Amino acid sequence: MNVAALPYAYGGPALRGVIRATPEDFFVDEDLGFALDGAGEHVFVRVEKRGANTDWVARELAKFAGLRPDAVSYSGIKDRHAVTRQTFSLHLPGKADPRWEECRSDEFRIIDVARHGRKLKRGAHKRNRFKIIIRDVQGDLARANGIFSSIAAHGVPNYFGEQRFGRDSAKVDRALAMFAGKRVQRHERSLLLSAARSHIFNSILAERVANGRWNAPLDGDVWMLDGTHSIFGPEPISAELSDRCARGDISPTGALWGAGTLRGEGAVAEIEQRAADENAALASGLVAAGLNQERRSLVLRMAECVLEWPEPNVLSLSFNLSSGSYATVVIREICEV
Fold first, then answer.
1. pLDDT band at 163 (very low <50, low <70, confident <90, very high)
2. Of the residues 31, 79, 243, 249, which is catalytic?
3. Measured between alpha carbons, how far is 111 from 130 in angstroms, rounded to an integer?
4. How many Å apart are CA 216 and CA 245, to the nearest integer?
5. DSSP type of residue 90
6. Cα separation of 261 and 23, whole Å?
7. Torsion angle of alpha carbons 216, 277, 300, 235, nearest 10°?
8. Nearest CA-CA partner of 65 in 93, 36, 41, 100
């Protein structure tokens, strides 16, 4: 899926520029959102990495601690072409901590170490803090400021970013081959199922962005409470629902495809079923793989949003995003990079 070709919420980017000129221009700081208890079988290692793959860092930590790779876990994969801070957990029951001060690498450094009673599971962190520098910026600066103000107030379409699909949507093509019978490794299977599901979701969201109903009530909507994964509905559109949506208390959702009956009704169900029918091989493959229908918010909202111009033609964007969302879908609304 070419994410760049998906409909925009605010009329298209006002700027053009260069992103990731250096890894330091794309900074991500993971916030677990919970305190460590200081004791237990798991060692939580907070790392700052530069230009390094998350899985590679996990394997390096396992090697240093004398563990199998599957004894190391992390909450989310962070960008390689960036400077990122994130936490890894290592299962060390009844074992003393390694001499972490001796763990050195040109690609990462250890910031902090603490014990905790439970392992770090995928998607367990609460949010990511981004600071992104875009250089050689050209375009309509006043309009860009206006778009950013709208984004801060109303959010952006919660598309899955290009990272989910690989170069030229390669993962979607491999998912189709897998559903047609090609054998893949277990780890790759999970990635391909996610890419297939994300492709259908983006198709659903794209139609709602195109008709201007991605962040407004539509007949048959299922709603998600802000900051949670709790959903309710569908129920008739009312002034109260419309007001809660406008305030950001609730957001409409779209289908993450799988087996079972669509929860949405009316116009929402028609859009979602149409996206599945247009991607029938992906939809049937997801059902056959045993995935069940789930929901994802159509709206991605930011917190602590700051736009600055530290130098001429240099744009700095800072914001917080909940886990599972993509900074690139925020950037695309403002600047073509």
1. confident
2. 79
3. 18
4. 7
5. E
6. 44
7. 40
8. 100
DSSP 96: P
Residue 40: count other Cβ atoms within 10 Å of its Cβ: 18
Question: Is-contact 63 157, C-beta < 8 A?
Answer: no
Give helix 186-210 / helix 266-278 axis angle, nearest 10°.
130
Query: Which residues lie below 8 Å from residue 101, measured CB to CB, with a gap of 6+?
Result: none
CA dist list (Å): 64 to 56, 60, 104: 12, 6, 10
Q: How far apart are CA 15 and CA 144, in angstroms?
A: 7
Paired tokens of 189: 């299977």
Q: Token pair for residue 171?
A: 């993962």
Q: What is the pLDDT of residues 282-291, one digit of tens each?
A: 999 999 999 9
Distance CA 167, CA 7 (A): 20
Cα separation values, 29 from 46, 55, 318, Å: 11, 17, 11
| HEC-encoded secondary structure of 292-333 | ECEEEECEECCEEEEEEEEECCEEEEEEEEECCCCHHHHHHH
pLDDT band for position 259 (50/70/90)?
very high
Phi, psi of 233 (to 5 degrees): 95, 180
Residues 152-189, buried b or exposed e (16+ Cβ, 10 A)?
A: bebbbbbbbbbebbbeebebbebbbebbeeeeeeeeee
Q: Is 226 a catalytic residue?
A: no
Classify 62 as helix, strand or coil.
helix
Average pLDDT, integer, range 47-58 = 94
Which amino acid is it at 106?
D
274: tokens are 């149409």
Q: Tell which residue, 175, 160, 203, 182, has the closest CA to residue 285.
A: 175
Cβ atoms of residues 295 and 272 within 8 Å: no
Tokens of 162: 């290009």
Half-sphere exposure of 266 (CA within 13 A, CB side): 12
